[in-house]
Amino acid sequence: MGRLSSRAKPVMLLLLCTMCRLALGITDGLLPNGNFERGPLPSQLRGTRVLSSSSIPSWQTSGFVEYIPSGHKQGDMLLVVPEGAHAVRLGNEASIRTRLPGAALRRGARYSLTFSAARTCAQAEQLNVSASGQSGLLAMQTMYSSNGWDSYAWAFVAAANEVEVAIHNPGVADDPACGPVIDSVAIKTLTPPRRTNRNLVKNGDFEEGPYIIPGTKWGGVLIPSLVVADEHSPLPGWMVESLKAVRYIDGGGAGGGGFAVPRGRRAVELVAGKESAVVRTVPGRRYALSFTVGDAGNACAGKLAVEARAGREAATVAYESAGDGGATKRAVLPFRAAAARTRIVFFSSFYSTRSDDRSSLCGPVIDDVAVVSVRAKRG
């Protein structure tokens, strides 16, 4: 058998790396050109408007789509792109979509999409996110950061190895260019959490969740509310029941967000929202719901409160926050199960605004949630 030539070796190495990547599936992080830094040629633009559906590498566009450079002025408003130098804006009924190639995903596996978005007009806006025959409508009624940008998460189950991901603006505004700006579209494989004999709550430590874009000034990812419990949540084991925000935060590490997290790397900030989980229980048996309350170290100073519910029992845990993420408070709520499944709920009954930015809402942090069976004491 002859030896490979010096020219053939790099080609074979490239093919081998490609085969390994396909075998391993897609990696967590930005989609190909997910930050839109590779843009159209000058001849494919009229001002900021994208003229051809295939002008943006790795993406297909339809409708009124603009390629926005950072610092672009719209009337008296300056559009800031916080990550990199470019983003895209979706006008009325406009969309962007990309196809993840065959063998990139595993059929039946669960994935979460993360993307950053900002409103450019005063009215409430929505984005329809779809993949693999599933879709979700994400409301952008309230922006939770002072610079107008927030990150959102949405989850789906891959129906095939090759999936098309789309983000669509279904709004009808007076100005066709009055639509949200999109940047940093990323994906993450979600690992289904399991309950243990030490904790009946799946993902009670919140370590499994959507991809968090590193280095963003606003930090964290907003988890959308679900209409029905069997929809796929980007925060496995948990469901957001309110239109108000629940933010998934990162406590640090490589590319971390620098938030204060009571335990581990991840936690949930109940900005003004409500989240719930369902645990398997034995009717009539006693249990204890325990959890930790704190603050994210994001200048959320003042009085905060979390209302916890387990079955028919409820308790409110007050927390005086210094805004520095220092102190935490452990709470326990005993309850007796009335059914084979018991819903536990956490609600931000008292939230605040950041002391360094009164336009940004903030709330208590929840972490390390556990439900265990408690044996009755013999008298």
From TrEMBL:
Domain of life: Eukaryota
Keyword Secreted: yes
InterPro entries noted in UniProt: DGR2-like_dom, Galactose-bd-like_sf, Pectin_Meth_Modulator
SUPFAM superfamilies per the UniProt record, alphabetical: Galactose-binding domain-like (SSF49785)
Domain DUF642: from-to ranges: 29-188, 200-371
Signal peptide: 1-25
Keyword Glycoprotein carried by entry: yes
Primary localization class, coarse: secreted
Cellular compartments annotated: Secreted, Cell wall
One of the Pfam families matching this protein, by short name: DUF642
Keywords: Cell wall, Glycoprotein, Secreted, Signal
PANTHER family: OS02G0205200 PROTEIN (PTHR31265:SF3), OS02G0527500 PROTEIN-RELATED (PTHR31265)
Name listed for the protein in its UniProt record: DUF642 domain-containing protein
Native source species: Urochloa decumbens
